[in-house]
Amino acid sequence: SLDYIGKVLVLIFFASALMAAATNFTACSLDEVNPGEFTMDSLAETEETYEKIINNCYFAMERYFYGASGASGIESNNWMAMTEATTDLWTYQRNKSTSYTQWFWFYAGASPNTTYTDNFWSGIYDGIGACNIAISKVDKVPFKTEEARNAKVAEAHFLRAVYYFNAVEQFGGVTVLTEPTTEKNYHPERTEPMKIYEDIILPDLEFAAKWLPIGNDATTTTPTRKAAIGFLAKAYLQTIEYDTSKKYATKALEYAKMLIDDAEAGGAKYNTHLYASYVDVFKESNNYENKEALWKHRWFSGNGSHGSSSGNYRLNRNDEYFLCNVFNFGAITDTQEFRLAWEGGPNGLFMPTQHLLSLYVQEDGTLDPRFHESFTTEWKANTAYTWDKGTVNRFDRESNVEGKKIEVGQLAIKFIMPQDENYAEESAKKLEKDYLVVDYKDVYDDAKKNVKMNYSYSNPSEGYTSDGKSENLFNFFYPSLNKHNSSNYYVANASKKRNGNLNATFIMRTAEMYLIAAEADIYVNGGSNALKYINKIRTRAGANPLVGVPTINTVLDERARELCGEYARFYDLKRTGMLKDNSYLEEHHPDLAQFFKPEYALRPISTNFTSTLEGGGGYYQNPGY
Predict the structure, then answer these.
(1) CA atoms within a 13 Å half-sphere pointing along the CA-CB vector of 196
(2) Which pairing describes strands 350-352 and 90-92: parallel, antiparallel, or unpaired?
(3) What are the CA-CA distances from residue 292 to residues 100, 296, 461, 554 (Å)?
(4) pTM surpassing 0.85?
(5) Please, what is the average pLDDT of the chain?
(6) Please, which pLDDT band fits residue 348 given cuts at 50, 70 and 90?
(7) SS3 of 569, please?
(8) How far apart are CA 69 and CA 363, in angstroms?
């Protein structure tokens, strides 16, 4: 079958009007004329046309979530920031923020922005409305068997659960809609998160886990049974934050083990796989048909109206968000070809915190192998460069570096960690190297657990002092997460295709099931088997196995090492209670902690929506906004 993006295009013309009506979340009146009498009922007359109704369930997911970014960029569509920023793992580039305070700094002490969530809020209800239509119309479709009917509508149940899951975890209790309606409601009520889990999210996923086909999702983005089982494990575990009895932890463990057992049996039952090596997970050749992905989105980029004019030729920009701006050193210049190599760029937003990097340091003082596999720390020159006096002074080099040359293809920048094998030697001679050595100790402060904003020059010159008050120019360069790098992305110049026009982003993969099992085992069995699950993931990465008594923090740390940058961390901290007060952030990300308030564990509901409600909608807004 075709990928869903191509198929939903036929519905885009009237999708917004349909969804606004379907969800009743609109304060305006729409008088639509349909000269062709093209209705949802007519689309439900055959299996083939019903497929178009199902495809519309994906549109909001494609437009606003998991990897999406259109012409408007992060300002409206950065789901990565909603799930990974404002956590212990990431800070904004150079530990600063101006226009992105809502994404990275809990508003930096200023009045909260209450409209930046607008597209996500609208997208969630667009998606829910589309799923409700699909579910309501399925009985009209003349499927040959009930099994075929259930298998197809299971897609809508799965997606509705995902929309509600994200709605609850971002906004808390929200308004429940399970049927299409055209009635206006200017005073909607909110339902508590646990009830939404029990009444919608979990039943929808249970239905999907029963009826979705096994499928070969190496070649499709349609969710299959293992996606539903995996999301069930994830959803059951997430209920921990709402239920002190942890009654669903057993279910989380049960479903996680179903996929673990299948992976260890070669995927015979659900087509579940765990790559033998961590290196294989993010290998370019495995991006499009990734066996470890339980569910992924594949992005289509066209030309013409769906490409250049809409900005969709840059749909998935996750790779750019994690790049550091290496163009701040003259041996690397900003060219189209360099951007095609995905090695660095000015659009990088996510800088690893001191805490994240420290998590890769093992007890024996060596680095977890996943560090150098997950992060780029060396960049080569793309232009011939000769060190000039100004650059020598700016980067505190010895005077004899002036005049040294770096040729195209030679090492230009290298970030070194104290645990690297040759660190002592390289650090001692860093100021006289031909290439720019960026020392971890010049960028991060282990004592203060943050990014150093100032630098003390060893070779002071005009404007660059040794009193520790000079601007730190080394924090331009930091380890850049490379999990999302793919040469299949479109770039600003749509004619520069890279090996095709599709690429995938992994929403959930098998390794997470082991970590869900480990956490659930702590709740259910006191952690008697937790290390077994954790060490399976560590061993396949070549990391040292853990010993001792595992805690929730043990699992959180391992989730950071394995899953950083994979749409999970904000939910991890919420689930485990690390955002109930600011003590956790004070310990691990003190610069962020100073702006944290417990109410920020929920995002603001866009005032573009609340202002349409009776009395201005103040009753509907989350506390603190």
Answers:
(1) 26
(2) antiparallel
(3) 33, 10, 53, 23
(4) yes
(5) 87
(6) confident
(7) helix
(8) 40
